[in-house]
TrEMBL record, chain A:
Species of origin: Erithacus rubecula (European robin)
Main location: mitochondrion
Coiled coil: none
Lineage of origin: Eukaryota, Metazoa, Chordata, Craniata, Vertebrata
Function: Membrane-associated protein that warps the membrane surface to access and bind aromatic isoprenes with high specificity, including ubiquinone (CoQ) isoprene intermediates and presents them directly to Coq7, therefore facilitating the Coq7-mediated hydroxylase step. Participates in the biosynthesis of coenzyme Q, also named ubiquinone, an essential lipid-soluble electron transporter for aerobic cellular respiration.
GO cellular component: mitochondrial inner membrane
Gene that this polypeptide is encoded by: Coq9
Protein name listed in UniProt: Ubiquinone biosynthesis protein
Amino acid sequence: PSHSYTGQGGQQSEDYESEEQLQHRILTAALEFVPEHGWTAEAIAEGAKTLGLSVAAAGMFHSDGSELILHFVSECNSKLSELLQKEQKLVQLGEAEKKPIDEFLRDAVEARLRMLIPYIEKWPQALSILLLPRNIPSSLNLLTSMIDDIWHYAGDQSTDFSWYTRRAVLTGIYNTTELVMMQDSSPGFEDTWRFLENRVADAMAMSSTASQVQSTGEAVVQGLMGAAVTVSKAETSRAVR
Amino acid sequence: MAAAAGPSVRCWLWQRRPLLCGPGPRPVPGGGAPLRPCSTRGAQRGIHKPVIDRIIRVDHAGEFGANRIYAGQMAVLGRSGVGPVIQQMWNQEKEHLKKFNELMVAYRVRPTVLLPFWNVAGFVLGAGSALLGKKGAMACTVAVEESISEHYNNQIRTLIEEDPEKYKELLQVIKQFRDEEQEHHDIGLEHDAEATPAYSVLKTAIQLGCKAAIFLSERI
C-alpha cells in the first residue's frame, strides 16, 4: 500500500498524492533536461525546480540517475504497449490489414527504438548504468516484459519451448539493433533500420530452417524404422527356411 | 511499503513484487499515466497475477507430462488387452492439455522451461512402468493420478481462499479435471495396480518425483 500525504485529520483530500506519484512527476519533468545534463542528479534537480519544488528533492533518488533511466524505460515500454494495442484494435475493427510477422516485429522494434532519438547522445551512458548489478533485476524485468508484449501483440500463441526461443531471438535483435543505433550517423538512422530488417529476416529464415530440419529428421527416422522392420522380417523368413 | 527518504530509496515502480494488478482509481494532480508496470498484462482482469501464473504454469506442465506418460505406456502396451483403456485415458489428458494451452494464452502465462525435460521424463516413466507389465503401468497411473488429484485439491483451496467469484471459470475447470483424474486413479485400481510387485515402493518413488516436478514447474 502506498503512503500518501494526508491532509488534516488523516482524511485524504481530493488532490492527495502518494510519494510514488510525486517521484513519477519529478522524473517525468526531469527528462526534459537529460539532453543537456545527462542522466544525473542535476537533471532531476532541474526537473524538480520546474514543478516548483526545491532542488533538494533530487536527494530522494540515487546520485547516478538510475531511477531516472528506469523511469524512462518504463514510460517508453508503456507507450509501446499503447501503440501496439491501438494497432490491434484497428485490425480487429477491420480498419487495417494484419501485418505479416516480420513486418510487425520490425515496426514494433523500430517504434520503440525511435523513442531513444531525443536522448541518443546520452543513451550509451544510460545503458552502462542499466548494467550495474544493482539495476540488473529491474532493467531485465523491463526488457523481458517489453519483448513479451511485442510477441503477444504479434499474435504469438506458443505454449511450448518455442515461447522461450522466440523471446530470446527478439531480445537479441533488439539489443544488437540498439547498439548499432548508438554508433549510427546516417541520416534518419537508415543504416540502423536496414540492419534491423536484415536481422529480422535472418530470424525468419532460421525458424523455417529449423522446421525443415525437424521434418527431414522425422522422415529419416521413419525411413530407418521401415528399413529395420524389412530387415528383421527378411531375417525371420530366412531363419524359417 | 515505506519509501525512506535518502539515496537508499527503492522506487517500487519497476521492482519485481507481487502486484495486485487492476484498475485503481487514484487522483493525481495534473493527471498522470498509470504507475503500474504490469498494466499491460492481466490488468484488465483484476486478478492476482503471480498466483494464477503459477497455477496455470504447473497445471500445464502436469497435463503435458501426463500426456507423455500415457504415450510411453501406449508405445509398450498399445497392442495388448489394456491398450484401449490407456488410450481412452490418454484422450482425456489430451483434452486437458488443450484446455490449459488455451488458458495459458488467455492469461499470458509463461510455460515452464523444463518442458523438454518433462517431455522425455514422462515418456520414459510411462514406457518404463509399462515394461513392468500391465500391472506396472496401472500402478504408475494410480500413483500419478493420486498426486495430481491432491495437487488440484490444493489449488482449489487456494483459489477459494483468494476469491471464489473472481476465479469461477478457473475453479470450474480445475474441479472438472480433478474429478476426471480421480476417475483415472480408480480405473488404475480396478485393473490390479496394487498387485504389482513392490507396489508401495514404486508408488512412493513416483509420487516423490511428482512432488519435485510440481515444485520445480511452479517456479521455473
